Amino acid sequence: MDFIRNQLEELGMSEPSIGYLSNIIMIIFIAMISVVANYIAKKIVLKTINHIVNSNRYRWGNIIVEKKLFHKLSHLVPAIIIYYSAYIFPSYQALVEKAAMTYMIVVMITVFNTLLNVFDEIYRSYEVSKIRPIKGYIQVAKIVLFIIGGIIVISNLIGQNPLIILSGLGALSAVLMLVFKDSILGLVAGVQLSSNDMVRVGDWIEMPKYNADGDVIDITLNTVKVRNFDKTITMIPSYALISDSFRNWRGMQVSGGRRIKRSIYIDISSIRFCTEEMVAEFEKIHYLTDYVTTKLEEIEAYNVEHQVNRESNVNGRQLTNVGVFREYIHQYLRNHPKINQDMTMIVRQLAPEDRGLPLEIYAFSNDINWSVYESVQADIFDHIFAVAQTFGLRAFQNPTGHDIVQLKEDKQYVREYS
């Protein structure tokens, strides 16, 4: 500044003009230094750092470059130059220093915010992130960062100690609790969800209260994002997963088997004892040959031992078509390539209803994929409905309009030919 003033005096300028012009020249000079320093930081230093990071074999280097962490950090260079040049202007030194310091604080807040994003992105690249998501904690850290940063900025502008502002916030604690109620609840819920391993990213959950039925795609501080199977997105409050009930299908996905639990209703009037002709037909069925032979020997031995009167089928033990049919379904499932043979497999009768006798199939497919599972289930029941008549059984269904029309036609036919 003295050098500039001396040069202006030698040019014969008056004192007031020298003061204004020297200040303008110095401001331009500082601005040029800041621009050059910023250029060097971005085009040379930053480019070198990015090259070193990109040549690193670790993926975290690429993430740092993508998030532009060093690019944001480079904004400090011109601010530092301006801050340490403020003493040149004694009248405006305090104002310039406050402005420069405020800018540096804001830059550091953005740098730490980006650093948290980088850490979250790196953590997500590991499988453990699906089991222990930390996005909620990252968001809490950001809230704390912005609050502390805001307090420091305000204290710098008003020239007060940050602790004084913090002490004043104690009176506003009730307001803060109200404003950050959801965040506090979400934080507590996030800790419980994570520590108890209740839900992970990628889990299929079902929560009818919120019309949620699909895969968890994101877990944040306040919400859990679910992509439903109809491709809609449902946002569930994090604390709702603690306070309300929901179903997590992860157990099914991990087990490798998906349950088939469906019944075929048998018309009770079609159930009867097996005749010799029926037994002969059953012996021809591949899955029943050994069963029928063994069962007939067992029944014969029992009836002989107890001297059963064979003149009535009611006496002693007899094969029934529904019992043989139940065994056939069981053997069919035992030999089905898409049924998990290591899990529970039951073919059972339930209590009779007005729709007939429910014959329930309880088994597990060995493929949890939804489309494959539905295809396997449909194929099994296609076959069961088709073979029921072979055993002299009828599947129950309520009368339809076609049945009533057919009944009228049958009655008319009887009248004409009787």
Automatic annotation (TrEMBL):
Q: Is Metal-binding one of the keywords? A: no
Give the family per the record: Belongs to the MscS (TC 1.A.23) family.
Q: Which domain of life is it from?
A: Bacteria
Describe its membrane topology: Multi-pass membrane protein
Instruction: Decide whether keyword Cytoplasm is in the record.
Output: no
**InterPro entries, A to Z:** LSM_dom_sf, MS_channel_C, MscS_beta-dom_sf, MscS_channel_2nd, YbdG
Q: Which residues cross the membrane?
A: 20-41, 69-89, 101-119, 140-158, 164-180
Q: GO:BP terms for this protein?
A: cellular response to osmotic stress
Q: Name one GO molecular function term.
A: mechanosensitive monoatomic ion channel activity
Q: Name one GO cellular component term.
A: plasma membrane
What name appears for this protein in its UniProt entry? Answer: Mechanosensing system component YbdG
- Biological classification of the source: Bacteria, Bacillati, Bacillota, Bacilli, Bacillales
Any idea where this protein resides?
Cell inner membrane
Enumerate the UniProt keywords alphabetically: Cell inner membrane, Cell membrane, Membrane, Stress response, Transmembrane, Transmembrane helix
**Residue span(s) of domain Mechanosensitive ion channel MscS C-terminal:** 327-393
- Chief localization class? membrane
Q: Which residues form the Mechanosensitive ion channel MscS domain?
A: 182-250
